[in-house]
Amino acid sequence: KRREIWKRIIHELKHYYNGSKLLCTETKITFGLLQQVLNGHRLTRRERKQLNRTINDLFRVVPFSVFIIVPFMEFTLPIFLKLFPNMLPSTFKQIDNNEENLKKFFQIKFEATQFLQDTIFKSQDISFDDVITIQFDEFLQKIHTSDNYPTINEIIEFSSRFSHKLTIDNLDRSQLIALCKLFNLSFNGPKHYLRYKLHLKLYRLKNDDKLILNEGIANLNIEELQAACHERGINSFDINNKSLQSQLQQWLDLHSDKSISPITILLILHKIKTKDTTVFQPIHVNNDMKECQVFSQIQSTKIHTKHFTYLQQISQTSSQR
C-alpha cells in the first residue's frame, strides 16, 4: 500500500510539473500571438483558440495557486474540483480515456437527442399541425430505412417548413436541459438562464463556423475535427477522419442557412449517424481519441509531448509572419 501511495504521489507530481511546464510554453507563445495582433496581423482559427485557452488558463491560475501556497489546502483540492470542475487550468486537467466512461458519455448525448426527438412535437409550448408532425416522423423514418442519405437541399427544403417554430425560446425546461447536455453545458438554473447560455453558445458556434469555412475543413487535424464535432453536439467517438469531415461539413452547410434551426440540424444529423449503428456497440478507443482535446485536455507525458509539438507548429507559423 505504501508503494502504491508513493507511486501515486510521484505520478501526480510529474503530472503537475508537466502541466506547469506546458502552461509556461503556452504563455510564451501567447505573448507572441498578442504581439502579432497589436501589429495588425490576423490570427488563424487555431491561433485564436490557443490564445483564448491560455488567457482563460492564466485567470484560473490565481485561485488554483492558493491551494498550493496555503499549507494543507491541497487536501481540499479534490472537493473543490468536484464542485467546480472548470476551476482547473486546461494544462492540469486529466483526460478520461476509459472506454466505459466514453461509452457512458456518448449514451448521455444519445438519450438527450432521443428525448428531444420524442417530445419536441408534443410540447405544449410549440403548436404544430398534425400534418407537419406526421411528415417529420415519415422523413426521419425514411432516413432510417432508405439506402441513400438525404441531400442537403432535401433537408433544407423539408426543414424550412417548421424550423421557425423549433427555436430555443419555444422549448420547455426539460428540453433545454437535453439541449445543454448535447452542447456539453451545465444545466443548472432557471429557463431564462439556460436559454441565454444556449443562445451564447450558438452565437460562438456561428462565428467558429465562419472561420472553419474560410480556412477549410481539410486544414483541421483529427483532434480539431473531434473537438469541433463535440462542441456542436455531434458524435465524434470511434469515427474515422473522413466521416468526421462529412458530419462537420453537413453541419456547416445546414447551419449557414438561416431558415433552419440548430435543433432541427441536430435531430436530422443524429438520425443519419444512428442509421447503421446502435448506441450499445462497443466504442473502440484509439490513440487519436485518447489524445484529442474533446474533454479539453491533458494527462500523460505522451499527451504533453504531442501538445508541445502542436504548440511548436503554432510558434513556427507565427514566427514566419
From TrEMBL:
Its membrane topology: Single-pass membrane protein
Keywords: Membrane, Mitochondrion, Mitochondrion inner membrane, Transmembrane, Transmembrane helix
GO biological process, one term: intracellular monoatomic cation homeostasis
Subcellular localization: Mitochondrion inner membrane
One GO cellular component term: mitochondrial inner membrane
Listed InterPro entries: LETM1-like_RBD (IPR033122), LETM1/MDM38-like (IPR044202)
Any single Pfam family the record assigns to this protein: LETM1_RBD
Domain Letm1 RBD: 104-299
GO molecular function: ribosome binding
Coiled coil: none
Sequence intervals crossing the membrane: 58-81
PROSITE patterns: LETM1_RBD
Main localization, broad class: mitochondrion
Protein name listed in UniProt: Letm1 RBD domain-containing protein
Upper taxonomic lineage: Eukaryota, Metazoa, Spiralia, Gnathifera, Rotifera
